[in-house]
Amino acid sequence: MATITAAMVKELRVKSGAGMMDCKTALNENDGDIDAAIDWLRTKGLATAAKKSGRIASEGLVGIAVDGTKGALVEVNSETDFVARNEQFQGMVTDISTLALEADGDNDALSNMSYPGSDKNVEEYVTAMIATIGENMSLRRTAAVSVDEGVVSAYIHNQIAPGVGKIGVLVGLKSSGDQDKLNNIGKQVAMHIAATNPLALRQDELSADIVEREKAVLMEQARDSGKPENIIEKMIEGRMRKYFEEVVLLSQTFVIDGENTVEKALKLAEKDVGAPIEIVKFVRIELGEGIEKKEEDFAAEVASVASGS
Questions:
Q1: CA-to-CA dists, residue 256 to 73, 158, 187, 190, 270, angstroms
Q2: How many CB atoms lie within 10 A of CB 106?
Q3: Are residues 76 and 189 part of one domain?
Q4: Are residue 95 and residue 195 in the same domain, yes or no?
């Protein structure tokens, strides 16, 4: 019998799209013959994923899991929203988000974790689901939040099943105060973040590149007004201050009351909670964010079918 090397398994995996263990089995069953192994995988329904792996998957679900002072988010993509409403797909996203609690935001680590009730890891299980459901899908990313003392609060927007939806937010609040009351304010802040999508927690945490780019745009706009440089400088100061109020979480107007900043709202909540409150970290994942979606010309597609081309 031929010796099955890691390189052979990798080659078959690339060519077939099947899981690593399935590729190894196929090679063993076919004495190391790559082409015969591909045929074997096809007969088992395990190589169909390869045909679908090039399709753009920008739909799917965001999953969320919280356990005490730790929370995790995952984004698992599919090609269509129809699949996102499949209970089997939803169950997979829920399982993966639970596993993500131990991955601490490491996508590679999560991909290589054993999938519950299966002999496959997460990546292999997702690949097998491509063949089962019939669409390309992938574990795109994961994020985590934890606190030493306090709570991690969670919010899912457009929830279609428990713990899965279109936007997921985690907020880590550090406090020794009443945990239930702390979690209530944490959920409100999480809802605020889902709505406003802040770029940073504090002004000094904003990317220098983002700040400079915004300043350059505002400077160009101000100079078009024809005003003197000393006036332009004051205009830029005011506009940048307004910009920070729009994109920095603690400086944003709290959408829940529409009056106070988030920072002040937390300060007011401290009396009810019974202790100081500090936001340690927040993460927000929106489904399909940053994925270049294929634009379909439905009229052209119908015309093409009608003409037989």
A1: 23, 18, 11, 11, 16
A2: 14
A3: yes
A4: yes
Number of H helices, E strands in the chain: 13, 7
Enclosing domain of residue 31: 6-47
Mean pLDDT of 276-280: 98
Tell me the C-alpha distance between 308 and 255, whole Å: 54
pLDDT of residue 130: 87
Q: Which neighbouring-strand residues pair with 145?
A: 71
114-123, 219-228, 289-298: which has the highest mean pLDDT?
114-123
Report the amino acid identity of residue 109.
A
Q: What is the pLDDT of residue 136?
A: 84
- What pLDDT was estimated at residue 79? 87
DSSP state, residue 296? P
